[in-house]
Each structure stands twice: as structure tokens, then as C-alpha cells.
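ok new one. same drill as before - C-alpha cells go in, u give me an amino acid for every spot. 505 of them this time. try not to just spam alanines like last time pls lmao
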């Protein structure tokens, strides 16, 4: 386990690394072996206040920097991320456990937001109305909030931070990123690359920490906006505390995403989709498909029949093996929690079609692995249906009819993502119109929008009025100012103006 010889990760503040002085450390696992590989300094209240001070001091000059100049830095950052893609993927996989292909894909999705932020000059254009009254014009502009904070989860340690800080910085804010203490290395490296791209010191800071740091960030009057991605329980606390302290907050939270498979669906396509959406990234993502809903028994039976050989053949292992399709969970605690949910599903009467609890990987016997798991005959009263498991556990539900299936999805507390698989345009259109979910896929299992659209769920999946990235991201990280100006009409007879001198003579 942990010892004093292990590497201790530091904070990145004001353009350089800062050694933590709190004396408190968090453990970072190598999840493929189930052992602590590094530690990370956890910020104290004083260290958090120091980081806020640095970001606050850097704000006026950065806000006054032209949008075009901010965009040029983003262009350079994008190129650096591309150049360092393999390095970033290894950093990410070593601490998270996901496959290198998954890691590269997640960095690429994050980079799409950087590319969107490169167009910030266009995105910040305001509206103008001439002559709203005699001699009166009116226009608006969007201006940065100030110091913004990003609190990000372990499951996408590059992508989710890149959903936040590029938009915030492009809009003219300074930023404090509080990444997950479970896998912070890739966030620290991204901050280094931003500095290399020409970002002034203090504009982007990475503060490692836990509840002690977050409590300060939620309450300090110098913080103007907070972006959060994580569990609903924590997200609701962050939203209520942050808004009570007069901050703008967006909190993207838990999910239980349903895939409705209609009897006419292409089952080969469906099973391919399930394998990627339920078991990709070991199910540790808020857009994972956790529930497959059918409206007839024949479809359920056919899905299980086609799914079982694919699940049996699923190759688990360490990210260092490029042939691996699924890695471990992030930590022994996550492994234990997911196995506990499988135990509970069995005790509550669901049919365990395929059990991943005893999965082992040769050479990684102590790793944090849970194999792909399938439950059938799941009902809406069961804990495995109500809760977000955040692991490779798929529930199959037999709704008995289209309207019953739609009601099932609409009644769930979460409203993040959903999908329908069908060849029927009428069914697809009806579903997209009536389903009470923020992001909907039609024959697309994980309907994450491209960066120029916005990402966000409904119900208990999102607290706040703004979704993430796209036009909503610009609105979240800026505030509207409207100017109404009146100039007396007509130029006085005989007056001379010298605009170079700046006055009348």
C-alpha cells in the first residue's frame, strides 16, 4: 500500500507547480493491480483561498484581452493536445484503467470543445438596434463572469475538464479546476499545455482537493460561477450551496439511461450498440446504457441470445494490451460497490443471466475488475433499476407495450439520455417528441451532442438553467449587458472636429 517513497502530485497554480502544505494526501490507485501507485496533495482552506486570489488577480487583464487573441491561444492548445495525444492517453489510462482507445477517444471529444471555443469571436457577437427612439440606439454584449470553478469526476478526467475550461477561458474568465483526486495527472498535464500555448499565468489553475477545498470554493465571494459533473447527491448540495452564495451553478448529475428496442429493430445493430454503450469504459459514464427496454418477450429473448456470446468473448485486462476491450473499475471501493449492487439484484429477485462478480484477469488477479453482467426480468421497484450503478451491469426490462415503455422511461427520477432502436420513422418521431429526457438517440446508443450543440439532461440529472458547451456554454460563462445610448442629433453649425487629437477645437 501507500508509502512515503511514492510520487506525490502537486497543485498547478499561477503557471507553475506548487507543493501542497496541508499534510493531507489522497491515494491514487493502479486499478489494474489494485494497489496504490501515487498520492496527491489535498488542498487546505488556506491553499484554496490562495488559488482563488491568484485567479482573481489574473482576471482583469485576461478579460481585457481581445477575443481574437484568446482564440489564438486556444488554436495553439488544440495543436499541442493533438501532438501529445498518446502521452495524455497513457496518463489517463494508468490512473483510470480504461483502454487506450477509450482514453484517446475521450480526449478527442474534449478537443472538439476546444475547436468550438476557437470561434469565440463569432460566438460573442451581440445584437444592435438602431433608432429605437429619436437619437437612441440599443445594443447588447456578453461579458465574462470572473473567477469560475470546475469540479470534475474521475470517469472522464480529460474530456469533462475540457468541456469546461476552454469555454470559460475563451469567454474571458479565469478558472480553477478541481479534478477528481482519484486521477488528476491528465488535468495537470493539460494545464501545462495551456501555459505552453501562451496562456498567461494564473488564468488556469489546477487545485487538487476534496470536501475541504470544495467547501471554500462554494462560499468564497470571489468565485462567480461553478460547473460540476458528478453524482446527484453531491451535485444538489453544490447547486444549493453555490446559489445560496450568489453564484451561477450548473451541476450535471446522475443518470439511468434506457434503450428502447422496438420489435422491428435491426438486432445486430442493437447488440453492437449495447456492447459499446453498456460495457464501454466499464460502464463508468453518465451516458452508459444501463437499461434495455422491450415491448415484447420475443425481442428480449432474441437480444439475450445474441448478447451472451459477445459478453462471454469480451476481453478484459490492462490498458497496456491494445487488444483489451474493457478495463477495471477505478478503485477497490468502486469494485466492491458494483458487486454489492449485483448481490442486491439477485436478492431482490432479478434473473441473473450473466454474472461478472468473479471475473479475473491473468497477471492482474488483484485488479479492480468486474465482468460484464446481465440481469433480466428487472422491475421498477428494484434498487438495481432505481440507482445509478456506474459499472458494467445491464438490466433488461419487459414493458409489455410501447406506452408502458414510454411511461417507464418518463417516470424515472433521472432524465439524462435515452435511445430508441427502430426502423419505423413514426415510432421514432413520437418517441423523440414525448420522451422526458434531455438527450435522445435514434438508432444511436449514446446521444452525446457534438461540441457546437449543448450537453445536458433533465429532472435529477441537471441542476441549473444551462447545459454544457455549445451555445449554452457561452451563455453560462458570460452575462448579458444591454446598453441604451442617446446622442443629440445634428452636428452644430461651424464646429470643427479633429478625431486624431480626440476633441473639438
Amino acid at each position: 500500500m501507500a508509502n512515503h517513497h511514492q510520487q506525490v502530485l502537486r497543485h498547478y497554480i499561477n503557471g507553475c507547480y506548487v507543493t501542497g502544505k496541508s499534510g493531507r494526501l489522497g491515494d491514487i490507485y493502479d486499478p489494474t493491480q489494485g494497489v496504490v501507485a501515487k498520492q496527491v496533495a489535498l488542498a487546505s482552506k488556506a491553499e484554496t483561498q490562495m488559488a482563488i486570489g491568484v485567479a482573481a488577480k489574473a482576471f482583469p487583464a485576461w478579460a481585457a484581452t481581445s477575443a481574437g487573441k484568446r482564440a489564438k491561444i486556444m488554436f495553439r492548445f488544440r495543436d499541442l493536445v493533438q501532438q501529445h495525444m498518446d502521452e495524455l492517453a497513457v496518463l489517463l489510462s494508468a490512473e483510470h484503467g480504461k483502454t487506450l482507445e477509450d482514453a484517446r477517444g475521450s480526449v478527442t471529444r474534449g478537443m472538439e470543445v476546444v475547436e468550438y471555443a476557437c470561434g469565440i469571436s463569432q460566438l460573442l457577437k451581440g445584437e444592435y438596434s438602431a433608432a429605437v427612439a429619436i437619437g437612441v440606439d440599443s445594443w447588447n454584449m456578453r461579458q465574462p463572469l470572473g473567477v469560475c470553478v470546475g469540479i470534475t469526476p474521475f470517469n472522464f478526467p480529460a474530456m469533462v475538464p475540457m468541456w469546461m475550461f476552454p469555454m470559460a477561458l475563451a469567454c474571458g474568465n479565469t478558472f480553477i479546476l478541481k479534478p477528481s483526486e482519484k486521477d488528476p495527472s491528465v488535468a495537470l498535464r493539460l494545464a501545462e499545455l495551456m501555459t505552453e500555448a501562451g496562456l498567461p499565468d494564473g488564468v488556469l489553475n489546477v487545485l487538487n482537493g476534496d470536501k475541504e477545498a470544495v467547501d471554500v470554493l462554494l462560499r468564497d465571494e470571489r468565485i462567480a460561477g461553478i460547473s460540476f459533473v458528478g453524482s446527484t447527491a453531491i451535485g444538489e448540495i453544490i447547486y444549493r450551496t453555490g446559489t445560496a452564495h450568489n453564484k451561477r451553478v450548473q451541476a450535471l448529475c446522475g443518470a439511468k439511461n434506457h434503450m428502447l428496442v422496438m420489435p422491428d429493430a435491426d438486432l445486430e445493430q442493437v447488440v453492437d450498440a449495447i456492447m459499446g454503450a453498456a460495457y464501454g469504459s466499464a460502464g463508468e459514464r453518465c451516458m452508459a446504457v444501463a437499461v434495455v427496454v422491450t415491448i415484447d418477450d420475443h425481442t428480449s429473448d432474441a437480444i439475450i441470445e445474441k448478447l451472451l456470446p459477445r459478453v462471454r468473448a469480451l476481453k478484459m485486462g490492462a490498458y497496456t494490451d491494445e487488444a483489451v476491450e474493457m478495463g477495471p473499475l477505478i478503485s477497490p471501493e468502486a469494485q466492491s460497490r458494483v458487486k454489492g449492487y449485483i448481490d442486491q439484484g439477485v436478492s431482490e429477485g432479478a434473473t441473473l443471466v450473466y454474472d461478472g462478480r468473479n471475473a479475473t484477469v491473468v497477471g492482474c488477479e488483484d485488479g479492480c475488475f468486474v465482468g460484464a453482467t446481465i440481469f433480466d426480468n428487472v422491475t421498477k421497484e428494484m434498487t438495481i433499476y432505481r440507482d445509478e450503478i456506474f459499472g458494467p451491469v445491464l438490466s433488461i426490462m419487459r414493458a409489455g407495450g410501447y406506452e408502458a415503455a414510454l411511461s417507464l422511461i418518463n417516470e424515472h427520477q433521472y432524465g439524462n439520455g435515452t435511445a430508441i432502436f427502430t426502423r419505423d420513422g413514426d415510432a421514432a418521431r413520437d418517441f423523440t417528441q414525448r420522451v422526458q429526457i434531455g438527450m435522445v438517440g435514434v438508432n444511436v446508443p449514446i446521444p452525446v451532442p457534438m461540441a457546437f450543440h449543448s450537453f445536458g439532461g433533465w429532472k435529477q440529472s441537471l441542476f441549473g438553467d444551462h447545459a454544457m458547451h455549445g451555445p449554452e456554454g457561452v451563455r453560462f460563462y458570460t452575462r448579458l449587458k444591454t446598453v441604451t445610448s442617446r446622442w443629440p442629433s445634428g452636428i452644430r453649425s461651424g464646429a470643427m472636429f479633429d478625431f486624431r487629437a480626440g476633441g473639438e477645437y
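The chain has 16 helices and 25 strands. and btw The two ends are 80 Å apart (CA to CA).
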